[in-house]
Amino acid sequence: MKKDFYQKTGLAIEQIANEVYQLKKGERIPSISDFQQQFTLSRGTVQNALNFLKSEKAIVIKSKGHMGTYIEAIDYSILQKYITSNQISGTMPLPYSKTYEGLATGLALAFLGEETKLNIAYIRGSEERIHMIERGIFDFAVVSRFAADDMIKAGKEIEIVLSFGKHSYLSRHVLVYQSDMDLELRDGLRVGVDYNSFDHVFLTNKIMRNYDAEYFDLPGSQLVHSIREGQIDVAIWNYDEVADKNFEDIRFTELPKENQYPEIGEAVIVCHKDNTLVSSILKRKLDVKNIQSIQQQVKDNELIPRY
């Protein structure tokens, strides 16, 4: 009987801690009846769980009569010891540029030494990353705002949780060519396309819409290599990698202004709409300005990447 009692109370502590973690000081806490109904618990079990969180100084609450009970103080670091998500998994692009390395470093350092541990998988293709969020394989994904907005419009069950601002995903795209080619588009070109990248496919289709070209499906990380090897003539690619690695045997031109989209350069974190606990954890753990600063330090070679 004692074992069953402690198991029930322990589960109730987790469930209620999960809910309370998403609240702020001054907000109304659900009533005991609300918790009873939501988690199918007895009144005594809910009361024991709340008393435990109060005794641990995770929360200080005050009743205001018929208006309900409100949070006077809340300690998220204590609450986090009891919430279900003591490990968060995310996915982002392969960190082939300093911009991506800086973002990965900022995310990793934000969780360093914390109760909640962060695991990141590096997967190419925003559609694939978002698909994994919908399937519950990962808790969050880093994609461009452009891709996130489009997929939300298409009915994907995701929401943008955080944004890291202009040029946090990439500074811009450029057209890269073989070194001995004329820097102009024309019919008959062999064009590299990363069909796993929503942004890359969109831009390539837009740029090449008036030309008769031959298309080659290539991972983004192989586009520059394929140009060097003479397998393709031209491709749209991330200028950040071109600048970081100072390629001397390829040439590039800027995209026309009408084909430049600032939203493609903005990194955002998306979560499943129903994953409100993880959204709350990320919003509390990730200081956008601090991550922007870390990203810039990595880009300026002032900080060694850690991820």
Describe, in plain words, how this protein is organized in 3D.
The protein has 307 residues and is an alpha/beta fold. It has three domains: 78 residues, Winged helix-like DNA-binding domain superfamily/Winged helix DNA-binding domain (Arc Repressor Mutant, subunit A); 118 residues, Periplasmic binding protein-like II (D-Maltodextrin-Binding Protein, domain 2, 3-Layer(aba) Sandwich); 87 residues, 3-Layer(aba) Sandwich (D-Maltodextrin-Binding Protein, domain 2), CATH 3.40.190. Helices cover 39% and strands 21% of the residues. It starts with a helix and ends in an 8-residue tail after the last helix.
Short description:
By secondary structure, this protein is α/β, with parallel strands linked by helices. 39% of the residues lie in helices and 21% in strands.
Termini separation comes to 46 Å
Percentage of residues in DSSP E strands:
15-25%
Instruction: Estimate the helix proportion, in percent.
Output: 25-40%
What is the domain tally? 3
Please outline the helices and strands:
Elements: H1 2-21, E1 28-29, H2 32-39, H3 43-55, E2 59-63, E3 69-74, H4 76-79, E4 87-92, H5 98-110, E5 117-122, H6 126-134, E6 140-144, H7 145-153, E7 158-163, E8 173-178, E9 190-193, H8 198-207, E10 214-217, H9 223-228, E11 234-238, H10 239-245, E12 250-254, E13 267-272, H11 276-285, H12 288-299
Parallel strand pairs: 4-5, 4-6, 9-10, 9-11
Antiparallel strand pairs: 1-3, 2-3, 6-13, 7-13, 8-11, 8-12
